[in-house]
Amino acid sequence: MTQHFLCMADLSPAKAADLLSLAHQIKRDPNAYRQVLAGQTLGMIFQKRSTRTRVSFEVGMYQLGGHALFLSSQDIQIGRGETIADTAQVLSRYVDGIMARVFGHDVLEQLAAHGSIPVINGLSDLLHPCQTLADALTLAEKWSPAGSFDPGVLKGRKLVYVGDGNNMAHSLLYTGAVFGMDVTIVAPRGYWPDLGVMDSARKVAAETGATLEVTADTIGGVRGADCIYTDVWASMGQEEEAAKRLADFAGFQVDAQMMARANDDAVFMHCLPAHRGEEVSAEVCDGPQSIIFDEAENRLHAQKAVLVDLMKRD
Ligand code: CP
Ligand code: NVA
């Protein structure tokens, strides 16, 4: 059966740890992987804009000996109404894998159902697993003893996500569940994560001992955090709600006062792009606790691991 990467929960806890170790290995010794996907092509469908996802996948494929095609949905026939099912079948005859950034998560499921090649979620309205896999790599590197790498260090650590209960919040819940972390979502009422996602992430958490909480308490929720994470208040596709959201999220900015409530050695993370002065103060975003650019770099290494895992031929 063709394997896909649509959600962190597609990975068993053991598989997720192996993938992080592979990403770390590829990062340390990229030359050993130069030809692993020689002659293979990744089709990259984008219904939304991107800097990190587009560039890191394209560069990643090149560094693995393969090639990537940028397919804006405006420029391919999907934009004129060709079905997702037909697109999946046609692309399966040309390319070896599909990465897609879409609005509806169902588009990814249709690509996976109708195509015969691996499909990777490059962000949907529901989930952003490539980002949180890179985030887990970043935290595991940060918390492993010097000179070593152990994904097991994530277990029992507390990650607090402050902001909109969106695709990032959902993927962080699944990621925390898979790695046995304690994840608290701090969000205003009305912006809490999807209940179905909470339920299914809690099922994974039951296997690993993770705890998953949601609260509107910006004081108690942040206490004891090893990592504070945030994302924009209005995601792509929600531009018209931006003004209302700015008002609704008042008091939820990650600023120095909020960071002071976390553990002393807590790190700050953001998937980027960031809106300084909205979800995070410039002082925190660009301050000493911020690891946002390590996080951005790790998109490349983590995704190369996903590509190798899904596309490498024996
Ligand atoms: N974090 C992230 O996915 O960035 P892009 O939207 O630039 O791809
Ligand atoms: N929640 C954001 C993430 C961007 C990487 C969005 O969907 O626009």
Concise overview:
The chain is an alpha/beta fold.
Outline the structure in words.
The chain has 314 residues and is α/β, with parallel strands linked by helices. The chain folds into two domains: 8-128 and 298-311, Aspartate/ornithine carbamoyltransferase (Rossmann fold), CATH 3.40.50.1370; 131-295, Rossmann fold (3-Layer(aba) Sandwich), CATH 3.40.50.1370. 41% of the residues lie in helices and 14% in strands. It contains eleven helices and nine strands. It has a five-stranded parallel beta sheet. A four-stranded parallel beta sheet has the order 2-1-3-4, sandwiched between helices. Bound molecules: phosphoric acid mono(formamide)ester (CP) and norvaline.
Could you give me the name of the CATH homologous superfamily of the largest domain? Aspartate/ornithine carbamoyltransferase
Question: Which sheet architecture does the biggest sheet show?
Answer: 5 strands, parallel
Count the helices. How many? 11
Evaluate the radius of gyration: 19 Å
Mean pLDDT: 98
Following the backbone from N to C, one meets helices and strands in this order, namely: HEHEHEHEHEHEHEEHHEHH
Q: Spell out which ligands are present.
A: phosphoric acid mono(formamide)ester, norvaline
Topology:
Elements: H1 13-28, E1 41-46, H2 52-63, E2 67-72, H3 84-94, E3 97-101, H4 105-114, E4 119-121, H5 129-143, E5 158-162, H6 167-179, E6 182-186, H7 195-208, E7 211-215, E8 227-230, H8 242-248, H9 256-261, E9 267-270, H10 282-285, H11 292-311
Helix pairs in contact: 1-5, 1-11, 2-11, 3-4, 5-6, 5-11, 6-7
This protein binds phosphoric acid mono(formamide)ester and norvaline (NVA).
